[in-house]
């Protein structure tokens, strides 16, 4: 069975690079604007930048988001990034085709936008309160193994992103469903 909610981390999961001001210099330096998200500009379909830093959407993300929607799951962004504004602006610039084929900003497809620097167990406790979904009906894709605490403490499904994508690439498109489907 496909999960009811698929949660995706931001930095190094949906895109390469850091948007977190604690990890990078986004929105800093000569001529920078306040707030930091006002420094982001779109370079092309995949990439955004400010005056000195660039980051880009991973090529698999549009197809993955379409698959999540096709299977009726809700999308959550769950990140410990300290700048919700930067993340939301970046996800507004990046477009994907929704389940009906219409091009939309990724942020417009997100049902739960949980971007703040707190433990991810707190993010999911809030989502559970709003949705009444059990933790086993949710899955988190993340680039950092330390975030498997959601699996250990809450009993929800968690996957290190690189493992899931590697399985998908090696075994073809059917493995994507197998990676996030549960018996």
Summarize the structure.
The protein has 183 residues and is of the alpha/beta class.
Strand content: 15-25%
Rg, Cα atoms, Å: 16 Å
Our count of helices gives 7
How many individual domains? 1
State the oligomer: single chain
Helix and strand pattern: EEEEEHEHEEHEHEHEHH
CATH third-tier fold name: Rossmann fold
| Residues in helices, as a percent range | 25-40%
What do the pLDDT scores average to?
79
Dominant shape: globular
Biggest sheet character: 5 strands, parallel
- At CATH level 2, the architecture is 3-Layer(aba) Sandwich
Can you tell me the residue ranges where pLDDT is under 50 for at least 5 consecutive residues? 163-183
C-alpha termini separation: 6 Å
How are strands sequenced across the largest beta sheet? 9-6-1-10-11
């Amino acid at each position: 069975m496909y999960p009811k909610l698929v949660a995706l981390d931001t930095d190094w999961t949906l895109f390469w690079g850091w948007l977190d001001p604690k990890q990078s210099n986004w929105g800093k330096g000569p001529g920078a604007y306040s707030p930091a998200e006002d420094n982001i500009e779109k370079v092309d379909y995949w990439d955004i930048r400010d005056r000195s830093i660039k980051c880009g959407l991973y090529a698999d993300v549009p197809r993955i988001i379409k698959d999540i929607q096709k299977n009726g799951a809700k999308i959550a962004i769950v990140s410990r990034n300290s700048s919700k504004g930067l993340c939301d602006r970046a996800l507004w610039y990046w477009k994907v085709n929704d389940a009906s084929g219409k091009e939309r900003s990724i942020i417009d497809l997100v049902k739960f936008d949980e971007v703040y620097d707190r433990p991810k167990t707190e993010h999911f406790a809030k989502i559970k309160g709003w949705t009444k979904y059990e933790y086993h009906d949710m899955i988190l894709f993340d680039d950092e193994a330390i975030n498997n605490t959601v699996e250990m403490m809450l009993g929800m499904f968690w996957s290190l992103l690189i493992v899931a994508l590697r399985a998908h690439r090696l075994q073809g498109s059917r493995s994507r469903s197998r990676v996030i489907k549960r018996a």
